[in-house]
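Bit of a strange request maybe. I'm writing a small parser for C-alpha cell strings and I need a real example to test against, not something I typed by hand. Could someone generate the C-alpha cells for this chain?
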Amino acid sequence: MNNFFKLFLVPLFLFLFFFNLYKSKGGDYSSPFFSDEYSWIARGYFLELLIKGDFDNPLWDTYGQGFEKGVDGDPKLAPYIYGLFMYPDYLKDKQERREEYDMINYFIDRNLFSGFMNQSVATKYEVYIKASSDYITWSPRELENPTLSDLIAIYGNSFNKTVEVILKARVANYVAVALSVVVGYFIAKLVLKKSWSSILASFFYGSSTLVFATGTYAGTEGLFLFFFNLGLLLLIIIFSRKKFGWLYLVVFALVVALLNQTKLNGIMLLFIFNLFALLHIIKNLKFKEKYGFIVKTLIVNLLFAVFYIALNPFLYKNTLRNVKFQYEWTYGLAQDQQTRFTQEALSDPIERLGFFTESFFTKK
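Reply from user aminoacidic:
Good idea to test on real output. This should exercise your parser:
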C-alpha cells in the first residue's frame, strides 16, 4: 500500500466511520443520559473567562469551601472543550441580550446551572434563576437511567433546549474518540508493522464496548482516550526510534499536560516517560552523553508543569497548595462515591480487571 493510502485515506476513513458510528448512537433521543454530563457541560463558562483573560474572577477560586476543602478540584480542559462547542450559539444570544449577559446566564437559560462554584458568586446567579419564569429545576442523579426522550417526557417540551445543548456537547466527544481510533491505528502500525493488521486492530478497539460507550456521551473519558493515545504514540516514537529532538519532546510535554488537565491520573504517562528515560540513560548512553539527556528529561518535566499550570488560572496563585488540593479533592470525591455507590464501585484490582475485560468483550 502506498503512503497516501496508509497515512491519509485510511485515517480519514477511520475517523469518518467511527465519528458517524458514535453519533448514530449518542445523537439519538433514545440514547441514555448520564448524570455527569450535566456538570461537565454546565461548567463550559470557564472558556469565556479564559478567552477574556479574566484570571482574577472569583469563579476560579474554588478552594476552601464545600466538599472537604473546596467545591471544584476538577481539571478544566473538558469544560473548555464543551464551552467551545457552545460558544457560537452563546455569542448569538449575547448580541440579542444585555451587555452583562454571560455564559453562565446562557446555560441557566437552558436549565443547566453548575453548583461547582464559589457560593458568593453563585448567589448572584441564583437571583437570575429566581427571576426566570421558565427555568426548570432538576437533578440528574434523582432519575434512574433516563434517556433523552425520558427527560422531555418528564419536564415537558420546553426541555428540548436543554437536550439540544447536551447533543451539541456530545459532538465534541464523537470527534475526540474517533480521533483516538485514528491515533490507535498509527500505534498499531508501529507495533504490528502491517497495515491490514493495524486496520483490524483499530476496528476492534473503536468498536469495543468500553470505547463505544465512551464515545456516546459528554464526559471526560473520550478526551482522555485521545490524549492518552497521542501521548503513547509519541512515547513509542521517541524511545523506539530514538527521536530525541526538541520538537518531539516539547509536543509530548504539551500532550501530557492536556491529558492531565482532562483527568489528574494523566500524569502517569509522564512517570512512564521518566522510567524509560532512566533505563535509556543507564543502558544505552555513554558517560559523556548522560548529562545532556538528563537535562532534556528534566526540561520535559519542567515544560509539563508550565503547560499544566498555564491551562488552569486556578493554579496561578498559591500553585503548590492548589495542585495539592486538586489531588486531595479528587481522591476524596472518589472515596465518597465508592461509599455512596457501593454496587457500582470497583473496590479491588480483581474487580477492576473483570470490569475492563467485560467492557471490551461483552456486547453493547
